[in-house]
Protein backbone atom coordinates (compact mmCIF):
# COMPACT_ATOMS: atom_id res chain seq x y z
CA UNK A 1 0.00 0.00 0.00
CA UNK A 2 1.53 3.27 -0.97
CA UNK A 3 0.20 6.74 -0.49
CA UNK A 4 1.48 10.15 -1.31
CA UNK A 5 2.60 12.29 1.61
CA UNK A 6 2.04 16.00 1.11
CA UNK A 7 5.62 17.08 1.78
CA UNK A 8 6.19 20.61 0.51
CA UNK A 9 6.99 20.53 -3.19
CA UNK A 10 10.13 22.62 -2.76
CA UNK A 11 11.47 20.04 -0.26
CA UNK A 12 10.69 16.94 -2.28
CA UNK A 13 13.78 14.89 -3.12
CA UNK A 14 16.22 17.04 -1.13
CA UNK A 15 18.93 15.54 1.09
CA UNK A 16 19.45 16.86 4.63
CA UNK A 17 22.53 19.03 4.95
CA UNK A 18 25.39 18.32 7.32
CA UNK A 19 29.14 17.91 7.41
CA UNK A 20 30.21 14.27 7.80
CA UNK A 21 30.63 13.25 11.45
CA UNK A 22 33.41 10.69 11.12
CA UNK A 23 35.24 9.04 13.97
CA UNK A 24 38.83 9.84 12.99
CA UNK A 25 41.78 10.90 15.16
CA UNK A 26 42.09 14.49 13.88
CA UNK A 27 38.82 16.34 13.27
CA UNK A 28 39.41 19.76 11.75
CA UNK A 29 36.25 20.10 9.67
CA UNK A 30 33.60 22.10 11.54
CA UNK A 31 35.59 24.82 13.32
CA UNK A 32 35.01 23.53 16.82
CA UNK A 33 37.28 24.53 19.68
CA UNK A 34 39.65 21.54 19.95
CA UNK A 35 39.88 21.74 23.74
CA UNK A 36 37.33 19.95 25.91
CA UNK A 37 35.91 21.99 28.81
CA UNK A 38 38.26 22.18 31.80
CA UNK A 39 37.55 20.08 34.93
CA UNK A 40 36.35 23.19 36.81
CA UNK A 41 33.90 24.09 34.02
CA UNK A 42 32.64 20.51 33.90
CA UNK A 43 32.16 20.49 37.68
CA UNK A 44 30.24 23.79 37.63
CA UNK A 45 28.00 22.68 34.76
CA UNK A 46 27.29 19.44 36.60
CA UNK A 47 26.39 21.27 39.82
CA UNK A 48 24.26 23.81 37.97
CA UNK A 49 22.32 21.18 36.04
CA UNK A 50 21.78 19.21 39.26
CA UNK A 51 20.37 22.35 40.85
CA UNK A 52 17.99 22.90 37.95
CA UNK A 53 16.84 19.28 37.75
CA UNK A 54 14.35 19.39 40.69
CA UNK A 55 12.50 22.28 38.98
CA UNK A 56 12.03 20.49 35.67
CA UNK A 57 8.33 19.93 36.28
CA UNK A 58 7.99 23.69 35.65
CA UNK A 59 8.53 25.52 32.37
CA UNK A 60 11.80 27.47 32.29
CA UNK A 61 12.15 31.27 32.53
CA UNK A 62 11.01 32.04 29.00
CA UNK A 63 12.89 35.32 28.96
CA UNK A 64 16.13 33.78 30.42
CA UNK A 65 16.80 37.01 32.28
CA UNK A 66 19.85 35.84 34.20
CA UNK A 67 21.46 34.50 31.05
CA UNK A 68 20.91 37.81 29.24
CA UNK A 69 22.76 39.62 32.02
CA UNK A 70 25.63 37.14 31.83
CA UNK A 71 25.86 37.44 28.04
CA UNK A 72 25.86 41.25 28.29
CA UNK A 73 28.74 41.06 30.79
CA UNK A 74 30.63 38.70 28.54
CA UNK A 75 30.22 40.92 25.46
CA UNK A 76 31.46 43.90 27.43
CA UNK A 77 34.62 42.11 28.53
CA UNK A 78 35.18 40.64 25.08
CA UNK A 79 34.58 43.70 22.91
CA UNK A 80 34.42 46.72 25.21
CA UNK A 81 30.81 47.39 24.17
CA UNK A 82 28.19 47.50 26.92
CA UNK A 83 24.75 46.40 25.79
CA UNK A 84 21.71 46.44 28.04
CA UNK A 85 20.58 42.88 28.88
CA UNK A 86 17.15 43.60 27.32
CA UNK A 87 18.96 44.17 24.03
CA UNK A 88 20.30 40.61 24.00
CA UNK A 89 18.37 37.60 22.77
CA UNK A 90 19.41 33.93 22.83
CA UNK A 91 18.29 30.69 21.20
CA UNK A 92 19.47 27.16 20.48
CA UNK A 93 22.46 28.13 18.35
CA UNK A 94 22.85 31.17 16.16
CA UNK A 95 21.19 29.05 13.49
CA UNK A 96 17.95 29.31 15.44
CA UNK A 97 18.46 33.06 15.88
CA UNK A 98 18.78 33.44 12.12
CA UNK A 99 15.65 31.37 11.53
CA UNK A 100 13.71 33.49 14.04
CA UNK A 101 14.86 36.66 12.27
CA UNK A 102 13.59 35.34 8.96
CA UNK A 103 10.34 34.18 10.53
CA UNK A 104 9.78 37.74 11.73
CA UNK A 105 11.24 39.73 8.81
CA UNK A 106 11.31 37.31 5.86
CA UNK A 107 8.65 35.04 4.42
CA UNK A 108 6.68 34.99 1.16
CA UNK A 109 7.28 38.12 -0.90
CA UNK A 110 10.40 38.97 1.10
CA UNK A 111 14.04 38.54 0.08
CA UNK A 112 17.23 37.58 1.91
CA UNK A 113 20.50 38.63 0.28
CA UNK A 114 24.02 37.43 0.90
CA UNK A 115 27.33 37.46 -0.97
CA UNK A 116 29.15 34.28 -1.99
CA UNK A 117 31.33 32.59 -1.08
CA UNK A 118 29.77 32.49 2.37
CA UNK A 119 28.03 30.21 4.87
CA UNK A 120 25.84 27.71 3.05
CA UNK A 121 23.20 27.53 5.80
CA UNK A 122 21.79 30.98 4.97
CA UNK A 123 20.22 29.49 1.90
CA UNK A 124 18.46 26.85 4.01
CA UNK A 125 17.00 29.34 6.48
CA UNK A 126 15.59 31.23 3.52
CA UNK A 127 14.08 28.10 2.02
CA UNK A 128 12.62 26.94 5.33
CA UNK A 129 10.88 30.27 5.89
CA UNK A 130 9.75 30.67 2.27
CA UNK A 131 11.94 33.71 1.87
CA UNK A 132 13.34 34.42 -1.59
CA UNK A 133 17.09 33.84 -1.66
CA UNK A 134 19.40 36.03 -3.69
CA UNK A 135 23.13 35.63 -3.64
CA UNK A 136 25.53 38.26 -4.98
CA UNK A 137 29.25 37.61 -5.55
CA UNK A 138 32.29 38.78 -3.67
CA UNK A 139 35.30 40.03 -5.63
CA UNK A 140 38.04 37.62 -6.75
CA UNK A 141 40.01 38.30 -3.55
CA UNK A 142 36.80 37.47 -1.60
CA UNK A 143 36.35 41.01 -0.34
CA UNK A 144 32.98 42.72 -0.60
CA UNK A 145 32.33 45.16 -3.44
CA UNK A 146 30.13 47.99 -2.16
CA UNK A 147 28.98 48.87 -5.69
CA UNK A 148 27.72 45.31 -6.10
CA UNK A 149 25.96 45.59 -2.74
CA UNK A 150 24.30 48.84 -3.84
CA UNK A 151 23.13 47.27 -7.10
CA UNK A 152 21.61 44.24 -5.38
CA UNK A 153 19.89 46.42 -2.79
CA UNK A 154 18.38 48.63 -5.48
CA UNK A 155 17.24 45.68 -7.56
CA UNK A 156 15.90 43.39 -4.82
CA UNK A 157 14.79 45.69 -1.99
CA UNK A 158 15.66 42.89 0.43
CA UNK A 159 14.12 42.68 3.89
CA UNK A 160 17.32 41.12 5.25
CA UNK A 161 21.00 41.24 4.26
CA UNK A 162 23.25 38.76 6.03
CA UNK A 163 27.02 39.13 6.08
CA UNK A 164 29.31 36.81 8.00
CA UNK A 165 32.21 38.75 9.48
CA UNK A 166 34.65 37.05 9.88
CA UNK A 167 33.35 35.30 6.80
CA UNK A 168 33.09 31.54 6.51
CA UNK A 169 34.76 29.87 4.59
CA UNK A 170 37.15 32.65 3.58
CA UNK A 171 38.10 33.84 7.08
CA UNK A 172 38.39 37.61 6.97
CA UNK A 173 36.28 40.26 8.72
CA UNK A 174 34.65 43.19 6.92
CA UNK A 175 36.51 46.47 7.44
CA UNK A 176 34.61 48.81 9.73
CA UNK A 177 34.34 51.54 7.04
CA UNK A 178 32.51 49.04 4.85
CA UNK A 179 30.20 48.07 7.70
CA UNK A 180 29.42 51.74 8.32
CA UNK A 181 28.80 52.38 4.63
CA UNK A 182 26.45 49.40 4.46
CA UNK A 183 24.49 50.64 7.47
CA UNK A 184 23.96 53.95 5.61
CA UNK A 185 23.04 52.26 2.31
CA UNK A 186 20.38 50.12 3.96
CA UNK A 187 18.33 52.78 5.76
CA UNK A 188 15.69 52.81 3.01
CA UNK A 189 16.57 49.87 0.79
CA UNK A 190 14.02 47.39 2.18
CA UNK A 191 10.52 46.44 1.05
CA UNK A 192 8.05 49.24 0.35
CA UNK A 193 5.46 49.17 3.12
CA UNK A 194 2.31 51.27 2.67
CA UNK A 195 4.15 53.35 0.10
CA UNK A 196 7.17 53.97 2.34
CA UNK A 197 10.60 52.43 1.85
CA UNK A 198 11.56 50.40 4.92
CA UNK A 199 15.09 49.64 6.02
CA UNK A 200 16.91 46.44 5.16
CA UNK A 201 17.72 44.54 8.33
CA UNK A 202 21.49 43.93 8.30
CA UNK A 203 22.63 40.81 10.14
CA UNK A 204 26.35 40.64 10.81
CA UNK A 205 27.10 37.06 11.76
CA UNK A 206 30.03 37.17 14.18
CA UNK A 207 30.13 33.44 14.92
CA UNK A 208 33.94 33.77 14.79
CA UNK A 209 34.10 37.28 16.25
CA UNK A 210 36.36 36.37 19.17
CA UNK A 211 39.10 35.20 16.83
CA UNK A 212 39.44 38.51 14.97
CA UNK A 213 42.98 39.81 14.69
CA UNK A 214 44.39 42.63 16.79
CA UNK A 215 42.84 45.96 15.80
CA UNK A 216 39.84 44.48 13.97
CA UNK A 217 36.72 45.94 15.62
CA UNK A 218 33.44 44.14 16.29
CA UNK A 219 30.20 45.24 14.64
CA UNK A 220 28.83 45.55 18.19
CA UNK A 221 30.39 49.03 18.13
CA UNK A 222 27.89 50.12 15.47
CA UNK A 223 24.72 48.98 17.23
CA UNK A 224 24.11 52.19 19.10
CA UNK A 225 23.64 54.22 15.90
CA UNK A 226 22.02 51.55 13.75
CA UNK A 227 18.48 50.50 14.69
CA UNK A 228 18.43 48.10 11.71
CA UNK A 229 21.59 46.16 12.70
CA UNK A 230 21.65 42.71 14.28
CA UNK A 231 24.93 41.22 15.49
CA UNK A 232 24.81 37.47 16.08
CA UNK A 233 27.27 35.47 18.18
CA UNK A 234 27.51 31.89 19.37
CA UNK A 235 29.02 29.81 22.15
CA UNK A 236 29.75 27.07 19.56
CA UNK A 237 33.13 28.25 18.34
CA UNK A 238 35.48 30.32 20.52
CA UNK A 239 33.60 29.43 23.66
CA UNK A 240 34.10 25.71 23.08
CA UNK A 241 30.45 24.82 23.67
CA UNK A 242 29.18 23.58 20.29
CA UNK A 243 27.38 20.74 22.05
CA UNK A 244 25.44 23.15 24.26
CA UNK A 245 23.60 24.85 21.36
CA UNK A 246 23.56 28.44 22.52
CA UNK A 247 23.58 31.33 20.09
CA UNK A 248 22.60 34.95 20.72
CA UNK A 249 22.23 38.35 19.19
CA UNK A 250 22.20 41.97 20.15
CA UNK A 251 19.92 44.42 18.40
CA UNK A 252 17.47 47.25 18.97
CA UNK A 253 14.45 46.70 21.16
CA UNK A 254 12.01 46.68 18.20
CA UNK A 255 13.90 43.83 16.55
CA UNK A 256 13.88 41.71 19.68
CA UNK A 257 10.17 42.45 20.17
CA UNK A 258 9.50 41.17 16.65
CA UNK A 259 11.50 37.98 17.24
CA UNK A 260 9.60 37.33 20.46
CA UNK A 261 6.41 37.06 18.40
CA UNK A 262 7.69 34.03 16.49
CA UNK A 263 9.87 32.15 18.97
CA UNK A 264 8.53 28.80 20.11
CA UNK A 265 7.22 28.75 23.68
CA UNK A 266 10.00 28.26 26.24
CA UNK A 267 12.50 27.58 23.45
CA UNK A 268 15.54 27.71 25.75
CA UNK A 269 15.44 24.78 28.16
CA UNK A 270 16.19 25.19 31.86
CA UNK A 271 19.17 22.84 31.42
CA UNK A 272 20.59 24.89 28.57
CA UNK A 273 20.21 28.07 30.60
CA UNK A 274 21.88 26.52 33.65
CA UNK A 275 24.79 25.08 31.66
CA UNK A 276 25.35 28.29 29.67
CA UNK A 277 25.39 30.38 32.85
CA UNK A 278 27.93 28.01 34.38
CA UNK A 279 30.20 28.13 31.31
CA UNK A 280 30.03 31.94 31.19
CA UNK A 281 31.47 32.13 34.71
CA UNK A 282 34.79 30.98 33.20
CA UNK A 283 35.01 33.60 30.50
CA UNK A 284 38.48 34.75 31.54
CA UNK A 285 40.17 31.38 31.13
CA UNK A 286 38.27 30.82 27.89
CA UNK A 287 39.47 34.09 26.46
CA UNK A 288 43.06 33.16 27.28
CA UNK A 289 42.52 29.95 25.32
CA UNK A 290 41.21 31.96 22.36
CA UNK A 291 44.48 33.89 22.41
CA UNK A 292 46.40 30.63 22.12
CA UNK A 293 44.20 29.46 19.23
CA UNK A 294 44.77 32.74 17.40
CA UNK A 295 48.54 32.24 17.67
CA UNK A 296 48.17 28.68 16.46
CA UNK A 297 46.17 29.96 13.48
CA UNK A 298 48.73 32.59 12.54
CA UNK A 299 51.42 29.91 12.76
CA UNK A 300 49.42 27.66 10.45
CA UNK A 301 48.97 30.45 7.88
CA UNK A 302 52.74 31.05 7.95
CA UNK A 303 53.50 27.36 7.62
CA UNK A 304 51.21 27.00 4.61
CA UNK A 305 52.71 30.03 2.89
CA UNK A 306 56.31 28.98 3.47
CA UNK A 307 55.47 25.54 2.08
CA UNK A 308 54.23 26.80 -1.24
CA UNK A 309 50.47 27.00 -0.61
CA UNK A 310 48.17 29.96 -0.80
CA UNK A 311 46.51 30.71 2.53
CA UNK A 312 44.08 33.55 3.12
CA UNK A 313 44.47 35.90 6.07
CA UNK A 314 42.13 34.74 8.81
CA UNK A 315 40.17 36.45 11.58
CA UNK A 316 38.60 33.10 12.43
CA UNK A 317 39.67 29.68 13.75
CA UNK A 318 40.11 28.16 10.31
CA UNK A 319 42.21 28.78 7.25
CA UNK A 320 41.20 28.55 3.59
CA UNK A 321 44.15 27.23 1.63
CA UNK A 322 44.98 25.91 -1.82
CA UNK A 323 44.92 25.83 -4.60
CA UNK A 324 44.62 22.29 -5.86
CA UNK A 325 43.73 20.91 -9.25
CA UNK A 326 41.83 18.08 -7.53
CA UNK A 327 40.91 19.22 -4.04
CA UNK A 328 38.76 16.16 -3.36
CA UNK A 329 41.82 13.93 -3.91
CA UNK A 330 43.75 15.96 -1.30
CA UNK A 331 40.80 15.75 1.10
CA UNK A 332 40.59 11.96 0.65
CA UNK A 333 44.33 11.47 1.05
CA UNK A 334 44.28 13.45 4.31
CA UNK A 335 41.30 11.43 5.50
CA UNK A 336 43.17 8.20 4.75
CA UNK A 337 45.84 9.53 7.15
CA UNK A 338 43.24 10.19 9.85
CA UNK A 339 42.86 13.93 9.25
CA UNK A 340 39.36 15.22 8.45
CA UNK A 341 39.08 18.69 6.92
CA UNK A 342 36.37 20.29 4.74
CA UNK A 343 35.79 20.56 1.02
CA UNK A 344 34.02 23.92 0.92
CA UNK A 345 34.28 27.28 -0.78
CA UNK A 346 35.54 28.14 -4.23
CA UNK A 347 36.84 25.41 -6.51
CA UNK A 348 40.45 24.47 -5.74
CA UNK A 349 40.41 25.57 -2.09
CA UNK A 350 40.08 23.58 1.14
CA UNK A 351 39.28 24.68 4.68
CA UNK A 352 41.05 23.46 7.78
CA UNK A 353 40.05 24.33 11.35
CA UNK A 354 42.66 25.32 13.90
CA UNK A 355 43.30 22.45 16.29
CA UNK A 356 45.74 21.75 19.10
CA UNK A 357 49.46 22.07 18.28
CA UNK A 358 49.59 18.27 18.02
CA UNK A 359 46.66 18.22 15.58
CA UNK A 360 48.27 20.97 13.50
CA UNK A 361 51.47 18.91 13.36
CA UNK A 362 49.59 15.80 12.21
CA UNK A 363 47.79 17.87 9.55
CA UNK A 364 50.90 19.59 8.22
CA UNK A 365 52.90 16.36 8.20
CA UNK A 366 50.16 14.56 6.28
CA UNK A 367 49.74 17.45 3.82
CA UNK A 368 53.47 17.52 3.14
CA UNK A 369 53.57 13.78 2.51
CA UNK A 370 50.65 13.99 0.09
CA UNK A 371 51.82 16.97 -1.94
CA UNK A 372 55.56 16.28 -1.96
C1 LIG B 1 29.49 27.74 12.85
C2 LIG B 1 28.76 28.92 12.34
C3 LIG B 1 27.63 29.39 13.03
C4 LIG B 1 27.24 28.73 14.31
O1 LIG B 1 26.05 28.17 14.39
P1 LIG B 1 25.48 27.67 15.80
O2 LIG B 1 24.09 27.35 15.43
O3 LIG B 1 25.59 28.82 16.75
O4 LIG B 1 26.29 26.51 16.23
C5 LIG B 1 26.98 30.52 12.56
N1 LIG B 1 27.43 31.17 11.47
C6 LIG B 1 28.52 30.76 10.80
C7 LIG B 1 29.00 31.54 9.63
C8 LIG B 1 29.20 29.62 11.21
O5 LIG B 1 30.27 29.20 10.52
UniProtKB/TrEMBL annotation:
Tagged with keyword Amino-acid biosynthesis: yes
Entries under Pfam families matching the protein: Aminotran_1_2
EC numbers on record: 2.6.1.9
Residues modified to N6-(pyridoxal phosphate)lysine: 237
Coiled coil feature spans: none
Domain Aminotransferase class I/classII large, first and last residues per copy: 26-361
The entry's keywords: Amino-acid biosynthesis, Aminotransferase, Histidine biosynthesis, Pyridoxal phosphate, Transferase
Co-factor requirement: pyridoxal 5'-phosphate
Pathway the protein acts in: Amino-acid biosynthesis; L-histidine biosynthesis; L-histidine from 5-phospho-alpha-D-ribose 1-diphosphate: step 7/9
GO biological process, one term: L-histidine biosynthetic process
The keyword Amino-acid biosynthesis is assigned to this record: yes
Subunit structure, as described in the record: Homodimer.
Protein name according to UniProt: Histidinol-phosphate aminotransferase
Amino acid sequence: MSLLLPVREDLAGLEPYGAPQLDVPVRLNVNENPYAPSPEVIADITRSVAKAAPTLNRYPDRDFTELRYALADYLEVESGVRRAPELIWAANGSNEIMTQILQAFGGPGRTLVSFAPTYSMYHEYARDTNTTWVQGRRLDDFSLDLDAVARVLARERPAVLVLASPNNPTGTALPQEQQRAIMEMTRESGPIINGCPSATLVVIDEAYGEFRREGVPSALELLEDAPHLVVTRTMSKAFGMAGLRLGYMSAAREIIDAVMLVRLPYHLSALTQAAALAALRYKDSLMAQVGALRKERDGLVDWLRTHGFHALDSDANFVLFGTFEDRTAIFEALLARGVLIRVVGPEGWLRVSVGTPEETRLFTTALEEITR
